[in-house]
Amino acid sequence: MEITRTTLGIAAGIAGTLFLGYCVYFDQQRRKDPLFKKKLRERRQKAQQNASRSRTLGGPVPDMSDHEAMQRFFLQQIQLGEELLAAGDLEAGVEHLGQAVAVCGQTQQLLSVLQQTMPAPIFHLLLKKLPEVSERLHASMKANRNSLHEEDVE
Q1: Which residues contact 123 (CB under 8 A, 6 or more apart)?
Q2: What sign for the dihedral angle of Cα 88, 90, 91, 96?
Q3: Under a CB-based contact definition with an 8 Å cutoff, are residues 118 and 110 in contact?
Q4: Phi-psi region of 106 (alpha: psi -120 to 50; beta: other; left: phi over 0)
Q5: For the CA atoms of the chain, what is the radius of gyration?
Q6: 82-120 pLDDT tens trace
Q7: Contact 81, 96 (CB under 8 A)
Q8: Alpha-carbon distance 58 to 140, whole Å?
Q9: Residue pair 140/61 in contact by the 8 Å Cβ criterion
Q10: Which of 1, 37, 49, 54 lies 20 to 30 Å from 81 when distance is taken between CA atoms?
Q11: Using one digit for the tens of pLDDT, what is the confidence trace for 56-78?
Q12: Cβ–Cβ under 8 Å, residues 96 and 129
């Protein structure tokens, strides 16, 4: 018995139709679930909160005890700050450089380097925003630490 091209085409069509039917059936079952919309809303709210926090902080704030993660975060903030300043976005650039200064272990040396390399008005803006940025960063780190403790309990 020889399988013809037409027979293979019909078999593939039937298999594709069955697969689509399977997908539609389980999608309907999922949508009928009374908790589906609630879970979906919660997931979207959580994603929106994480996205807004990431935008304001230039990414998720790493664990302070992880030296490598803090170093990557520091370098990322320096790079983002420099790129944004070069693009003309002074506020965002100063924000990222402020975060880098806030997590830096040698704050005075970094500020000295920044003072020598940056125009005076931008450096003064950085000094002006530094307490606000540091406070926000530490509050975010504290919130991350608290959420980690809550997840451990569950």
Answers
A1: 114, 115
A2: positive
A3: no
A4: beta
A5: 26
A6: 998 998 888 889 999 998 998 888 889 989 999 999 999
A7: yes
A8: 12
A9: yes
A10: 49
A11: 555 667 777 788 888 888 899 89
A12: no
